[in-house]
Amino acid sequence: MGLFKKIGNALRKTREAIARRIDSLLSHGELDDDFYDELTDVLISCDIGVRTSMEIVESLRLRARKNKIRTADEVKHELKEIIKEEFEGVGELDISYPAIITIVGVNGVGKTTTIGKLSKYFKINKKEVTLVAGDTFRAAASSQLTEWAERTKTRIIKHDEGADAAAVVYDGISSAKAKGTDVLLIDTAGRLHTKTNLMEELKKIDRVINREYPDSNKYNLIVLDATTGQNALNQINAFNEFVKIDGIILTKLDGTAKGGVVIAIEKEYHLPVAFVGVGEGVDDLEKFDYNEFIDNLF
């Protein structure tokens, strides 16, 4: 299945919800105050967020008056143009090599699975990859990552459960430098901001990377579950207090009618969405393209 088809399928629920409501609203009359109020509710229900939805609708209101917009198709076209302009100021995450990519996020968002998929993605693009089992906190995390390493035929560096995560990262960096690895993918323990010890561990990992491999290109990517909606924004806030987040990987986009959370993230944080998960397979992680995303959303 091609990329466009995968993204289209993943956003089907959101797209149908928006189109159905817009068509319904316009079947009863003009683009009046009631229409704009209800359209704001439609966008909020798709997890675009209250403030962002209100700003988008206000822009639409001004353009509709200026350009004499009347039909549902014209409304959807103008919405696409407004949102694309928001994304243009953010840009893409351009990964340079050698790269050290630390994957962070709360429990249950699919970090380890995402690392497995990332490994396949980079290997398809002819990069040498090494995995680092930095989640020494959760039982069986290392064995889960080992399964992905075997599945994708990727080297893995790991210690025993309960080991110092920064020490595992140190060994991973030593191995990467010795073997000329292009991409070092670091798994970390799932954590909440209330787990201060685990958050401090992230800062320690960051220090080890900066000290041991200053010439590498360092990225901290947060994995967010699309089905959690606006709660994903709170998670970005929490992790940003401890490490600089460079980009986002959005998982489980195929299982939600709330794909609009991508727009809220871009608007609130100006962080690039680097990849999106659009299925359960090892190949179901795609590089994010905002033009394609918005075209499929409307």
> What is the makeup of the main sheet?
8 strands, mixed
CATH architecture of the largest domain: 3-Layer(aba) Sandwich
Q: What is the level 1 CATH name of the largest domain? A: Alpha Beta
Helix content: 40-55%
Low-confidence region ranges: none
In brief:
The chain is of the alpha/beta class and 298 residues long. It has helices at 3-10, 12-26, 33-45, 50-67, 72-88, 111-124, 141-152, 165-179, 196-212, 231-240, 261-269, 290-297, and strands at residues 99-104, 129-133, 155-157, 183-187, 217-225, 247-251, 273-277, 285-287.
Describe this protein's structure.
The chain has 298 residues and is an alpha/beta fold. It folds into 2 domains: 86 residues, Up-down Bundle (Four Helix Bundle (Hemerythrin (Met), subunit A)), CATH 1.20.120; 192 residues, Rossmann fold (3-Layer(aba) Sandwich). Helix content is 52%, strand content 14%. It is built from 12 helices and 8 strands. An 8-stranded mixed β-sheet has the order 3-2-4-1-5-6-7-8, sandwiched between helices. Helix 7 links the parallel strand 2 and strand 3. Helix 3 runs antiparallel to helix 4, helix 6 packs parallel to helix 7 and helix 8 runs parallel beside helix 9. The protein is elongated and about 65 Å long. The mean pLDDT is 88.
